[in-house]
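Our consortium's second objective concerns turning raw sequence data into structural hypotheses that experimental partners can test. To show how far this objective has progressed, the report includes one record in full. It was chosen at random from the queue rather than selected for favorable results. The single chain below, 163 residues long, was entered without modification.
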Amino acid sequence: MDESTAANIEYVVGEGIVEGITANWEALLATADDVAAGLDRDTVVCEPTDVTVVPATDRFGLTAVVDDDTFGRLDALDPDALEPTHVARAESDGLVLLLVVFESDEQAVVLPLYYERTADAEGVLRDHDGALPIRVRSLTALEPVSFVLDSPEYVFPETPFDD
């Protein structure tokens, strides 16, 4: 990561909870662990092995795949009780990296995500009006655990992708 990329990291929501975020996936995962350690509640840290942009013709949103153990912990939560409290965004090497924190009084979920900065992927997300569903599943789960970002503009760079 070069210095100009680090300078372009944006804290979109929240009070700088993710001050160490950098624009590469491995560092983002490490930052997710650091953020979780700073929360004073039971926290599930997700480490997705894949994130997919799903168009509106299917189950619109972002779908992340996690391991079975993490999914089991998520599945035990009430996702409707969790509100998004922090979103951080960075761009690097054709990706938009996100770190989203959902919290309730007793629990939290720290969720690193990414999507390719292409006309197709970003276009699917930008063209949808309303909330952005984020579904987390394991390879063996029949139904995902779903979270919602009511203000999806937080996941977009300020300038739309221009091919």
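The partners drew two points from this record. Strands lie at 10-13, 42-45, 50-54, 61-65, 83-92, 95-103, 107-116, 132-137, 145-149. Residues 25-37 form the longest helix (13 residues). Both points have been shared with the crystallography group to help prioritize constructs.
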